[in-house]
Design a protein that fits this description.
This protein has helices spanning 20-29, 53-68, 79-88, 166-182, and strands at residues 2-7, 33-38, 43-47, 74-78, 99-106, 127-131, 134-140, 161-165. By secondary structure, the chain is α+β, with helices and mostly antiparallel strands. It has two domains: 2-80, 2-Layer Sandwich (Alpha-Beta Plaits), CATH 3.30.70; 83-164, Alpha-Beta Plaits (2-Layer Sandwich). A hairpin with a 4-residue loop joins strand 2 (33-38) and strand 3 (43-47). Helix 3 (79-88) runs antiparallel to helix 4 (166-182). The protein is globular and about 50 Å long. This is DUF1697 domain-containing protein. InterPro entries: DUF1697.
Length: 183
Amino acid sequence: MIYVALLRGINVGGNNKIDMKQLKAAFEHAGMQHVVTYINTGNIIFKNQELNKDELSALLEKTILEHFGLSIKVLIRSMDEYRKVIDSLPETWTNDQTMKSDVLFLWDDIDEEAVLDKLDIRPEYDRVIYAPGAVLWSVDRENAAKSGMHKIIGTKIYSRVTVRNVNTTRKIFELMQAAAANA
């Protein structure tokens, strides 16, 4: 089965630095196959037939701790789970000069539509959609400072999500599709 591991909080602001070639090697050492990394923020596509998501997450967190001395949370999504997020993502949403659009991937313990009630959503600026496994959030750049999106930082929920912009989210899915075609 094809999975993506979304690492939380690596190579951000000069903290928790991990080299992607070394990370790839560590994943392979842990038994993952067809490992591909995408950009420096911890997106790793791989194949594994033996373990379930919880087992993969625990194994990869342990692997990162052993190889890099860092306690990093690892969120695992199967290709089918990831596809549900992609299918919910409006095609018109971009991350460019005019629009900021992010995907907040949710840990399982907060993965429910009711999570929206705990967010500071400002309907006059924010476009927010719950999809199984994620919250999709978009705001026009001119209104970014008025958005509730930045209010999530430092909250209890923020510690249970890992964020990718929509461009990265879409590219990861392309890489997952390519891995599935080549596996």
